[in-house]
Amino acid sequence: MGEHEFIRGLLRELGIPDADVYYESGWVFKVDGYSAEEALYPWMMLRDLGWKAVASAISDVYSSGSLPVFYLVSIGVESRERAEELSEGIREAVNFYGGRLVGGDTNRCSCGAWVDVFVIGRSLSGRLLGRNGGSPGDIVVQLGSIGLGSAAYHIYKEEMDIRKFPHVMEWSLRPVIPGWIPYTVSHECVKAVIDNSDGFLYSLRFLAESSGVRLAIDDLWFDDEALSVVSGEWGKLSSGEDYNLFLLVSNDCIDGFMDYCNKYSQGRWGCRVVGVAEDGEPGVVLPGFEEMGGWESF
């Protein structure tokens, strides 16, 4: 059993809806974490890991149509100096994304470093936006391009020069998720949503299975520089940490939603129609890539 099946099984056992956050009475709750051993690329500093941990949690809060209010962090490091560096990146990210850092915990470890970020947010719409609200006929909308996070991992594995790819490098150091995302996601026409943190096929598959639909995908949007890293072979951009989103939007109001979303489009952030939800066995129709995976911790 892999990481994702373990988590989904635990959610079913606890009777918790299949969503990236826990929702109750207008509040959302999220925790995410990293270890330096797994997440700190050679070109990163420890404060970049602090920023990245906050951004990862924010991605899920934003994708639920919510704004962050409070943060708590738990860190493990070898020394006070490293604790200060890691904390600096955390504080910088909290100041950027908004909300208040209200507490946490510190531990000594010989593991290099680890960090967990807890976020409490407030829903803009007063409803839970999860993965299971879609139905046949919905339109699949991709918000943000794919590939920068996966390209960074590819560069690391292939021992390439990250300096040749400035946008990939910038994203791997300090991923920035625009503040208009939660307002767009909370639009009344959005029925289901998932952020792409573990690979685009994994994300689409989870969305399809939770909503009980088949997603026919015909036009994914990839970042140009990320494609140049892998010489155009977009199947290699499947490892995740892109933090773009996939939405299921009601066909009845897709035109109005796209007009609303495209007001904010800039650079790699915007909205594109990439497919449709159909009746059939839940899953993803993406010819040639049915067996492609994504990132799992175990």
Write the layout of secondary structure elements.
Layout: H1 3-14, E1 22-24, E2 27-35, H2 36-39, H3 46-63, E3 66-77, H4 80-97, E4 100-108, E5 113-123, E6 139-143, H5 148-158, H6 166-173, H7 181-185, E7 190-195, H8 200-211, E8 214-217, H9 224-229, E9 245-249, H10 254-262, E10 271-278, E11 283-285
Parallel strand pairs: 3-4, 8-11
Antiparallel strand pairs: 1-2, 2-5, 3-5, 6-9, 6-10, 7-9, 8-10
Helix pairs in contact: 3-4, 5-6
The level of helicity is 25-40%
User: What's the CATH architecture name of the largest domain?
Assistant: Alpha-Beta Complex
Q: Superfamily at the CATH H level of the largest domain?
A: PurM-like C-terminal domain
Rg, rounded, reads 18 Å
How many helices? The count is 10
Question: Termini distance?
Answer: 8 Å
The name of the CATH topology of the largest domain is: Phosphoribosyl-aminoimidazole Synthetase, Chain A, domain 2
Total individual domains: 2
Element pattern in H and E? HEEHHEHEEEHHHEHEHEHEE
Which geometry do the CA atoms define?
globular
Portion in strands: 25-35%
Task: Characterize the structure shown.
By secondary structure, the chain is an alpha+beta fold. It has two domains: 104 residues, PurM-like, N-terminal domain (60s Ribosomal Protein L30, Chain: A); 147 residues, PurM-like C-terminal domain (Phosphoribosyl-aminoimidazole Synthetase, Chain A, domain 2). The protein is 35% helix and 25% strand. It has ten helices and eleven strands. The strands form two sheets. It has a six-stranded mixed beta sheet with strand order 7-9-6-10-8-11. A five-stranded mixed beta sheet has the order 1-2-5-3-4. The radius of gyration is 18 Å and the shape is globular. The termini are close together.
